[in-house]
Amino acid sequence: MDYIMETMGLRKSYRGNVVVDNVNIHIPRGAVYGFVGPNGAGKSTVMKMVLNLIQPDAGEVHLFGEKVTDHSYEVFKRVGSIIENPYFYEKMTARQNLELHCEYMGFPNRERIDEVLQMVSLQEVRGKQVRHFSLGMKQRLAIARAVLAYPEFLMLDEPINALDPEGIREMRKLFQRLNRENGTTVFISSHILSEVDLLADTIGILRHGKLLAELPVEEIHKRQTEYISLQVDDVPRAAALLEKKGITNFTAEDQEFIRVYDSDLSGKTFSKYLVENGVGLESLGRRQDTLEDYFFQLTKEGD
Is the pTM of this model over 0.85? Predict the structure, then answer.
């Protein structure tokens, strides 16, 4: 397979604590790869090693089929990125910051600046100093900078942080358009699993520095099963009643929710049975497992 990026046995420790442990990632050309995990899982550290911002203790990174070294200047010209908090020259305008990035990248097409500002809805404030930008506006400007030089590979570390719901939706559409129309390969990290589920075609799950799984989203969706969600006022009593009814394939999610799998009983039958036996029923509905469910199941097994 044609991989645009691979990591091989990446490992990194700080003060004796292993933060990335033997991570092997494979990103096919043209993919949208969702890199998910809780805060502190090591996602940013992996991405920094890919970009050669920090050196791994062990392992290698390959971009476009070449091993990344301190001299991979031409390779990185083909990459756009946001890593952790974006930084700008605060007293310069949005446009001036992007002009400076053009010079740094050796990218001569200045007309592209207005195009990317339009893409991220900052065209009206292109002459405004960045110090007057909100966090959300700075995040949009960081995305504009990352896509400015037509990157073949786009690395985005938590790119929707600080964006409102409308901004998240706009950026999701932008990343999808870049991928579909320009063939841009996207490597996006996030702890917002529902958003990654909408965007990615491949998922890598990181926990405590270890890559627990790497698989197509389609495969995760095939594993998703339907269940009946019951919100009750007495979970132990409701569980006992279900067992009395001969129903054993259920889980208690917390202090008020129960999931019932593989049951032929209708929702109406459930509600009537529980209420008649003194259990208060707040809500009932049919649901399907999500990426979030798969993630928590996998990480629970990994603990």
Answer: no
